[in-house]
Amino acid sequence: MLSDTTDHLGGTMLFNSMQYIFFFLPGMLAGYYLLQRTGRPVLTKLWLLGGSLFFYSSWNAAYLPVLLGSIVVNYAIGTRLMRVGETAKKRIITAGILLNVGLLGYYKYSDFIIGIVNDAAGLTLPQLHLTLPLAISFFTFEQISYLVDCYRGKLKNDSFLHYAMFIAFFPKLIAGPILLFKELEPQLAQARNPLNEMNLCMGLYLFFIGLFKKVVLADTYAVWATEGFDRLPGLTLIDGWAVSLSYSFQLYFDFSGYSDMALGAALMMNIRFPVNFNSPIKARNIQDFWQRWHMTLSRFLFTYVYVPLSRFMYMNVYRRLPWMAKEAQACINIILLFLISGLWHGAGFPFLIWGLLHGVAYATHRIWKKAGFRLPGVLAWLVTLLFINCTSVFFRAKDWASAMKVFKAMFGCSGVAFSHLPLSNTSGSVKWIAAGFLLVLLAPNSNQLTERFEPNWRTAVFFAVLAVVSIVNLTKISEFLYFQF
Predict the structure, then answer these.
(1) For residues 330 and 366, is the Cβ–Cβ distance under 8 A?
(2) What is the rounded distance in angstroms from the CA atom of residue 320 to the CA atom of residue 318?
(3) CA dist., res. 186 & res. 343, Å (int)
(4) Which of 204, 382, 393, 438 has the most beta carbons within 10 angstroms of its beta carbon?
C-alpha cells in the first residue's frame, strides 16, 4: 500500500496542498470567470482543459501522453460507433473495450500476472515495475461508459473539447466521482456560466468540509493504521481492533473527504457532480452499504459490468445448464462482479479475497432477503459494520502475513495487553474511534450540510473554524488513499 507521505509524488498538487488551495484553484476560478466575460465559452473550456492537463502533469509529465492518447483514441472510437451499422458496432465496441482494459492491464497487472506465471511454472521472468499512471483506473471506467453509451445510441457528441473535458476535468480526474458523459456534457454546453455567489459559497463550504475530513480526521487515524499494519511485528487484541477500525475510519474520511472536495471545487464553477457518499457506516446490510459507499462506482459496475456480464453468462453458460436456478445464476454473477471490483481496486490476492468476501456476502444477503428473514435494526447494523471492518483488513494489508497479523490480534491469538503505538497509545486511538462513531452516526453528513446551507453568521463561524483548523493541519502533505488506483 501507499505510504503516508508524498515524497515520491514530487511536485503533485494534491487537493490538500498549499499550492492547490492558495494558488492553483483560485487561479483557475479567476481565469474561468474572467474569460466568461468575453462572451466566448470556448475560451473558458480551453482554460479549464489546459489547467486540468497541467494539474495532471504536475504528478508525472511523462504519463500525460498516455492520458491524451487515450482521450483521442476513445473519442475517435465513440465517433465511429455513432456512424456505423449494428454489425460493425459490435466489432468496434469489442475492440474499444479491449483496448481500454488492455492499457489498464498493462500498467496495473503486468507484474501481478508475471508473478503468478513465475510461481506456477517455476520461472524467473523479470517484472516490469511500471509506475501506474495517476487515475488510470478511473478514466478507463469513464471511457468505457462513454463507448458503451455510444454503442447503445444514447449519445450524440460532436465536440472533442467536451469529451476531453469530460475525462480530464481536474476536480474529479484523479479519484472520481466516476461520471457519465451525459451528466457533464449538458453543463459544459451552456453558452454562459456566470458567477453564482451561492454556488461559490456552497462549493467553498463543501471543499473545506472535505479538507477537514482529510487532514484532521483521516490523517490522524492513519497514524495507528500505518503503525499496526506496516511497522509493529505483533499486536494484541485491543491493538488489533484499534488498528483495523482506525483504518476503516481513515479510508472513510479520506475518500469521502476527497469526494467532498471534488464536488465543492466543481460547484464553485456551477458544475454539479453526482453524490458519491451517503453515510455508508450507517448501512444495515451489505446491499445498503454499496448503495451508500462510492455510489458512482456501484452505478458503473451494475450498469456497465453486471448487466453485460449477466447476459454473457446466460448466453454462453447458463443456457446450457437448464437445471441451474435463476437465483443461483444471479449469485454467481454477483460474486464474479465483486471479484472484478476487487481486481480493479488492486493487483494482488488480498484485493481478490476482499472482492470474493463482499460478493459472497452480497449473494447471501440476496438469498436471506428473498427468504423473508430480517435482523433487528441494531444487530443488522453491527453485523454489517463488523463485516466491513474485517474485510477492510484485506483491503489494507500489503501481503497475506500482514493481514494475518491483524486478524490474529483481533481474534485474541496474540494476547490482550495494551502496547504502545507512536505519537499516542492505544487508549488514545480508542478515544478517537469512539469520537469517529459519534460523528458519523449522529452528525449530519456533508450532503445534508450542503442541503441546509444558509449564508448566515452561524454558517460563517462553522466554516471559519473548519478552514482555520484544516489549514493549520497542513503541516504535512499526505496522499489520498485512492490515488493508487
Answers:
(1) yes
(2) 5
(3) 33
(4) 393
Report DSSP state, residue 21.
I
Residue-wise pLDDT tens digits, 385-414:
999 999 999 999 888 889 999 999 898 876
Amino acid 362: pLDDT: 97
CA atoms within 13 A on the CB side of 57: 12
| Cell 476513445, located at residue | 74
Spatial CA neighbour of 207 closest among 37, 398, 409, 16: 16
Contact predicate 243/224, CB 8 Å? yes
Q: Give CA 34 to chain center in angstroms.
A: 32
pLDDT at 418: 53
Spatial separation of the C-alpha atoms in residues 349 and 157, rounded to whole Å: 40
pLDDT of residue 1: 37
345 catalytic residue (yes or no): yes
Beta carbons of 5 and 478 less than 8 angstroms apart? yes
pTM of the model: 0.91
- Angstrom CA distances, 313 to 156, 275, 337, stand at 30, 32, 12
| CA distances in angstroms from 114 to 61, 102, 105, listed in the order given | 27, 15, 12
How far is Cα 287 from Cα 120, in angstroms, rounded to an integer?
36
Please state, in angstroms and rounded to a whole number, the distance separating the CA atoms of residues 106 and 114: 11
d(CA 334, CA 357): 11
Catalytic: which of 294, 345, 358, 365? Answer: 345
Return the half-sphere exposure (C-beta side, CA atoms, 13 A cut-off) of residue 316.
Answer: 7
Alpha-carbon gap, residue 259 to 17, rounded angstroms: 16
Residue 219 burial (10 A CB sphere; 0-12, 13-18, 19+): buried
